[in-house]
Amino acid sequence: MSKKSNFPQPCVIDYAYDPATTWHRKAATISDNGCLPEELRLEATFKQEYVNRGIRTLCTGRSENRQRKFYSGLKPLAYAGLYGGDDYDPVARMSVAEVVFVWQPADLAGPIRILYFSGFTPKPRQRKAFYAEVWAYLRTLPPIAQPEH
Known about the structure:
The structure is a single chain. The protein is mainly beta. The protein has one domain. The chain is built from two helices and ten strands, in the order βββαβββββββα. An eight-stranded antiparallel beta barrel has the order 1-2-3-4-7-8-9-10. It has a two-stranded antiparallel ribbon with strand order 5-6. A hairpin with a 2-residue loop joins strand 5 (63-64) and strand 6 (67-68). The longest helix is centred in the last third of the chain and has 12 residues, at 127-138. The chain is globular. The termini are far apart.
């Protein structure tokens, strides 16, 4: 982000949709420390407990030993195509300190970009400024990787 910013540098990973499996697969990484799985799925949710908290989309990884490798409820933010969520630890049954931002251009089957801020959660009074900085940062990145045909 900016040189005077206190916000951490995110992992930036692009995923392309695979219609044969209905999963998104890693397509390209701008920076990656292994924080996200190779495959993710986006799906709409209508579960009332999520809807009451503003969550409209779930982002999940595959299950291993009946546990998801990644799980996050995503809330639409004030910026078109930008969704916020946190990395949920199913073993501990709690949200961990990581925050995930998903750039979702058109629909759940389109390519996505994830910015993963490991170990960082903005305080409530910092959220508006944080999202504005994330939006500005996204505009400095190359376009989302498109799948090769």
